[in-house]
Amino acid sequence: MLSTKFAIPDVIFGRGAITHLAQCAKRVGAERVFFVSDQGVEDSGWVGLVKGMLRANDLECVYFNDVNSNPRDKQVQEGVEIYREGKCDVVVALGGGSPMDAAKGIATIVGNGGEIKDYEGANRIMRPLPPMIFIPSTAGSSSDISQFCIITDMERRVKMSIISRSLVPSISIVDPQLLVTQDRSLILAAGVDALAHAIESYVSKLASPFTDLHARNAIQLIIANLERAAEEKDIEALEQLSIASTSAGMSFSNAGLGDLHALAHALGGLCDVLHGWVHPTLLPSVMRYNLPSCMAKMGEIGRLVTGLNTGSDRDAAMMGIEKLEQWFEKLQLNTKLQKLVPNREDLMHVCNMATHDACHLTNPRPASAEDLMSVCEEAW
Amino acid sequence: MLSTKFAIPDVIFGRGAITHLAQCAKRVGAERVFFVSDQGVEDSGWVGLVKGMLRANDLECVYFNDVNSNPRDKQVQEGVEIYREGKCDVVVALGGGSPMDAAKGIATIVGNGGEIKDYEGANRIMRPLPPMIFIPSTAGSSSDISQFCIITDMERRVKMSIISRSLVPSISIVDPQLLVTQDRSLILAAGVDALAHAIESYVSKLASPFTDLHARNAIQLIIANLERAAEEKDIEALEQLSIASTSAGMSFSNAGLGDLHALAHALGGLCDVLHGWVHPTLLPSVMRYNLPSCMAKMGEIGRLVTGLNTGSDRDAAMMGIEKLEQWFEKLQLNTKLQKLVPNREDLMHVCNMATHDACHLTNPRPASAEDLMSVCEEAW
Which of A177, A195, A220 is the last residue of a domain? Predict the structure, then answer.
C-alpha cells in the first residue's frame, strides 16, 4: 500500500447542531460573515433562521444567493466582488452541493486571486482561503466534508473539478433536521449521489483502510435507509442518511472518485442535468466495466447491497449490480441515459471530456474514450 | 442524540509514510524544528533517520529527549526553555505516548505561557499552539491523533488529563514500519491500551456514530492481529494494528474514555507503572461494573471479541469479557492488580483520585470512589 492521506473538517453532528453556528463562526474569527445559500433553501425557512442566529450574536451578514443548480464561473466571480465590497472575513454556506461549491469557488478567488478556471485540476491552490463553515441541507454532495469543488465553465460548457486540501471547510455542521424540509425527489437524488461517492471511492486507486471503513458504512446505511427517508421523511432514517453522506464524503474526499463522476461532470456541463439523476443511468454499467480490476471489492459491495454473504466475489458483485438496478426501478428513478441526453451524437464528446476530468485518474480500470462510449451505449 | 464533535488531524498513513516528514514540516512553516523523542526510540535508529531527513531538507533541528515513560511536569518546563532558546517554530515528536505527550505539554506552554498544571481538565487552552507533526512508534497511545495529553504532576503524584481541540496535532504520520523495531512486550502494552481506548470510548457517554464506527473497527482489528504482531512481528499484522490504533484514537479523542482510564491515570501517578499494563488487570472488572448501563453496546463488543453472533446482549457481553480474560492469560499478561500496587492501603486514595480525572466524566455508569473500590477489589 502506498502512503495515503486522510483529512476531514471538524464535524459537529446531530439534531440541533445548527444552533452551534454563531459560536463556531466566532471561534474562527468572524465579524462579517459572507453567507451563501439559494432560493430553494430560502423557501424552506432555514436561510431566515441562519440570518437570525448570526444577527442575534452580533455578526454582520452579507447574503449571496445567485447560485444555479450547477454553479457557474460567472456566479463565483460575482460573489467574489460582493465578498470584497462587504469586507467579509468568514464564509458560511447553507444548502446542497451548489451553494457550497459556489462558496468554495468564491473563497478560492478571495484567497488566491485570478479566475476560478486557473485552479482546475488537483492541488493548484497555493494560498490559504478564508475560514469556511458549511451546513449541508441535503445528504448527498458532502461538499461540506470534501476537498472537491465543481464549477461550470460556461464558455467551454464543462464542469471543472477543482481538488485541494484547502477546499476542506474548517467546520461542517451536519444537522439531520434540515433534511425534513426536502422533497422526495431531492432526497433521492442526493442519496443516490452519496451512494455513488461511496461505491466509486471504495474501488478507487487511492482507497485506504480509513476511506474503506467509511465507504462501507455509507453503502450499508444508504441501502438500509434511503427509501424510508424519501417516502416517509422518517427522522431516524434521515439521520442515518446524514451519517451515510458524511461517511461517504470522508471516503471520496480522500480516495477520489472514478469514471462515473467523470462522465457525470461532462454530462452536467453539456446538458445542465441535476447531478444525482446521472447515477441511476450509468452506475451499473460503470460497475460492470470496472469489475475485472476490483473483483474482491466489487464482491464486498455486492454483499453489502444484497445483505447476502455467500458466493464468489464475481457472483456477489453481479448480484449487487442487479440488486441496484432493481432498486432504482423500485424507487422509480430513470435508468435510461437517453432521457438525459438530447442528442446521441453528443456522447462521444462527453466521453472525450470525461477522460480529461480529475476523477478519471483514480478509476480502478484504465478507460479510453471508446471504452467509456461502450459504457454509455450499454446505459443508453 | 446530542450534537457531537468529530475532529482529527490530517493522517498520512502507510509503509514509508515517514519519508513525507520534511515536506509536511515545510508545509506548516518549519524552519527550526523542535524534535522530541526518547532513549528507546534512539536505540531503534529512527531518531537518527529523522534528524537526517530534516538536515537533508535544510531544516534546523533542536533535539530534546529528557522524557520519562510517564512524562513529568518538570520535563515539560525544561523542554519549554530549550524550545525558546532554540527559537523553534514547529514541534515534531517521534515515539510512544510519552514523547508525544511531553511535546504537547511543551507546545501548550510555548503558545499559552504559565505552567502545565494550569491547563488540567477539559478545554482550558485558549491560545494557539505551534504546529505539531507526530510520528507514533507504537500502535497504542494514539496521542498523534487525540486531543489528550497526560502529564504527571510530581508534587501531587497524579497524572493530569489535559484535553483540548488545540492538542490535536496538525499532521499525524503513521508508518507501520516503525513497529518492526518494537519488542514483544511494548507491542502488547500498546495494543492493549488501544483496545482499552476502543472499548471505553465505544460505551462512553459522548460516543457518536462516527466514533462508534472507528471503535468497532479497532476492536475487531486488535483481537485479530495483536498476537501475531507481537509474537511474529509480521508486517501485515503490524500494519493492521497501526490502523486499529489510529481508529481507536479517532474514537476516544472525540468520545472520551471512562473509569478504566481514570483509575489507570491515578495508578500511574502513584506507582509509575507502564500505562498499558494496568488494563489487563482492570478492564474486565470495569466492563462488568458498566454492563447495566450499556448492555446493547457491551453485547456488540462481546460479539466482536468472540466472533459469535448469537445470544442475548447480556450473554454476548459476558462471553466477551470472559474471552478477554482468557486472551490476556494466553498472552501471558499479568491480570492481578496486586502485582502493580505495592500497598493495598493505597487503593482508596487511587479510587478517590480517579473520581477527579476528566475521563471519569464520560464513564457510562456513575461511580463513586466506593464503587471503584469494589472494582479494584474484584481485580486485586
Answer: A177
